[in-house]
Write a structure and sequence with these properties.
single chain, 60s Ribosomal Protein L30, Chain: A, alpha+beta
């Protein structure tokens, strides 16, 4: 079966002022999304999704990574990342999740930016023009709260009822004027640590 990519959609914004103050440096937030025909559509309940995951994950992962590197100015310039999937209204949520919850997809982006963190994610279903939210975090430090950001975008004609969307999101830095500390400071304050976040 061939993967049919109907189109690639990209989104980018540059934040110059936040809280009434100039940003220390412009913050670029961007995303690349692939709108694809659902390869499982019309086949009833498919028990084993792995053949399509293994075949199509690398195609989407590489194509979207290339777009992200162009928008972000290369892997070294991208500090935060994430991913998202969306199912059309006639598709299982599992189908969209299958495209992105695999190393055959995410590792292309992770390796390109030399990241160590997992990619935060959302899995949703909706009609065309539903907002896609892609949560971001520091590519090397999941507790660095300055880089907790969200890319928000929508595609006016996607997903169609039998389509899926797979997307990557990224940012060139953290929130301008961030001032809520990091996760490790909070853990220490309650007598806990990364291995025992509940402090019990």
């Amino acid at each position: 079966m061939k993967l049919t990519i109907r189109k690639i959609v990209t989104y980018k914004e540059t934040i110059l002022v936040e809280g009434g103050r100039d940003a220390p440096r412009p913050l670029d937030i961007f995303a690349a999304a692939a709108i694809v025909k659902n390869p499982w559509a019309g086949r009833g309940f498919v028990e084993d999704l792995s053949p399509e995951i293994q075949a199509f994950g690398p195609i989407l992962g590489q194509r979207l990574t290339d777009e992200m590197l162009k928008m972000g100015g290369g892997g070294d310039a991208i500090e935060a990342f994430g991913k998202a999937a969306m199912s059309g209204t006639d598709c299982e949520l599992e189908h969209a999740s299958a495209l992105i919850h695999t190393l055959h997809f995410g590792n292309f982006f992770r390796q390109a930016v030399a990241g160590k963190s997992y990619l935060g994610f959302t899995n949703t279903r909706g009609p065309a023009n539903t907002q896609i939210n892609i949560p971001l975090m520091d590519k090397n430090d999941t507790g660095r709260r300055s880089h907790y950001l969200t890319v928000q975008m929508s595609v006016h004609d996607a997903p169609a009822a039998d389509e899926l969307i797979a997307a990557f999101g990224g940012a060139s830095g953290g929130r301008p004027h961030h001032r809520i500390g990091d996760r490790y400071t909070d853990l220490a304050a309650i007598g806990a640590d990364v291995d025992n976040p509940a402090g019990v």
